[in-house]
Amino acid sequence: MILRFRQHVTGYLHENRANVTGNRQPPLEATGRAGIPWEPHPPIGGLAVTHNSYAVHNSYPVMCRACGQAGFIGGDAPPHSCPACHSTDIRSHEELFQLSLAHVDCDAFYASVEKRDDPSIRDRPVIVGGRERGVVAAACYIARKFGVRSAMPTWQALKRCPDAVVIRPRMDHYVAIGRDIRNRMLALTPLVQPVSIDEAFLDLTGTQKLHGCSPAEALVRLQNSIRDEIGITVSVGLSGTKSLAKMASDRDKPDGFFIIGMAEARDWLAPQPVSVLFGLGKSSVARLEAAGIVSCNDLVTAPADQLTGILGRRAGAIRDLAAGIDPRAVTPERDVKSISSETTFIKDLGSAAALEAELEVLCQKVSTRLKAQNLAGGRVTLKLKRPDHRILTRSQTLSSRTDKAHMLFTVGRALLAGELGGKRRYRLLGIGAEQLGPPDGVSLLDLAGDTDARQDSLEAAIDDIHGRLGQDALQSGRVFTRQHRPERDPARQRAALEKLDEEDDGPKQDPSDNAGKTSG
Q: Residue 381, SS3?
């Protein structure tokens, strides 16, 4: 009877041995945790048996998210509430204490942070993103009820939700909070694979002895600490593969905890649309749907040659995902390929002075992020978007990698100069550093005391001031006199948007428009 409990649930053997012998005292004393008051009938690890005068019963793995109690409870069915605290916020699943791969996702991260910082907007719809002709970077759940979604043009979002509070992203602030959350994940396991600033995969295999509890319990403790100490909520998906864990976290939001067991994976996936598969892009989904392959079951049962014609070499791997098979491991290291920043203007800009002022601000943001990660770029790329949404990029490879804002600006300005003149105007400007690596050593020019060395020293002093007093404490004359100043007042901003809408009937949605967001 004891054999059903494998090594990763050794902590629960004590309570079940006690119950097998008829001891109905609160269990789990051996693990150092208070026990759940059990049903009168002894749980026997899921085996249907009769012990002395006891009737036949099963035991069910149960975890309460409210009080943190966890264990096996006997009965004819899983309980509807926690027998310890009577909360209905419980989870019961056959594989609850066996699964160890999770996906943790912050709920409406940017918007949640803004609501935390300003309680006056807690009950209002909040949109975080580029203003005027920018796009939505995040929308709170209240705004989502009006149909507001990420990557939607701000003007369109405000048409759907006119009373929304629009807030320009504060990326440095979000990054700092995201780093705090990441450190809490790393305290559980070194196997943390970031997907973005607000989500990551965790592999907690083998951590039971370290934490004195199952991975599921450790994840609930993580949720509670983030909610209580940071002030935002996260949703957790628990399963045995990355793809299933990602799908699970999307199923119960906000502040959710959803489990997909490996035994049920294929049947659970069968009716799901192919779009739920983690790693399958929108274009691949469109091609599959066009061929009549709509559900995961359709994908699993489709002829191999048909799938190869649609998906190419990835056909076999995608079919496996639809069947619940995903061998991809959680890999902590993820190479950053580029760091960039861009902005969309309320009115198209064409003059060199106006565009260079915006370029200098963006170069400062990219430089700050490079320095924070001890990275430097060997290639600089300029991005411009015309009023008709056509995008052009210009790049230059450097003789040595740099993380200096003044160097990024010098190269970016030279690239920009070739695209100015005549009636050419632009609605978006971006700058990025690629071919990343550690900063190169001191150059010969620096050793000779050239202008670059003096500019580096000046930039270091400016960085120190910005670090102590904020980015607005010291600005260059070019930035101080910049013409493009974001509208701070939401009411006035909406008026400006309505005027724009009347003039050009609104811009069309462009998925590549990431105004107000920083990528990398």
A: strand
Instruction: Choose the most confident range, by mean pLDDT, from 6-15, 201-210, 326-335, 361-370.
Output: 201-210
Question: Residue with structure tokens 């970016």?
Answer: 412
Q: Is 342 marked active-site?
A: no
Q: Identify the active-site residue in 199, 342, 356, 360.
A: 199
Q: What is the Cα 459 distance to its own chain's centre?
A: 32
CB atoms < 10 A from the CB of 212, how many?
A: 13
169 in Cβ contact with 137 (< 8 Å): yes
Phi then psi dihedrals of residue 105, to 5 deg: -130, 125
Is residue 379 a contact partner of residue 397, using CB atoms and an 8 Å limit?
A: yes
- 336 Cα distance to chain centroid: 15
DSSP string spanning 25-68? S---GGGTSPPP---SSPP-TT--B--TTPPPBEEEEEEETTT-
The three-state secondary structure class of 220 is helix
Between CA 99 and CA 265 the distance in angstroms is 13
Helices (H) and strands (E) in the chain, counts: 19, 16
Q: CB-side exposure of 335: number of CA atoms within 13 Å?
A: 6
Structure-token pair, residue 237: 């998906």
pLDDT digits (tens, 9 = 90+) for 67-118: 988 988 888 888 889 988 999 999 999 999 999 999 999 999 999 999 999 9
Amino acid at the residue 75: G
Q: Six-digit token pair at 458?
A: 């000046």
HSE-up of residue 470 (Cα within 13 Å, Cβ side): 4
- Range list of H helices, 148-261: 154-160, 171-188, 208-211, 215-225, 242-251
Place of tokens 């978006």: 428
- Distance, in Å, from the CA atom of 419 to the CA atom of 384, rounded to the nearest integer, reads 9
Q: How far apart are CA 104 and CA 256, in angstroms?
A: 10
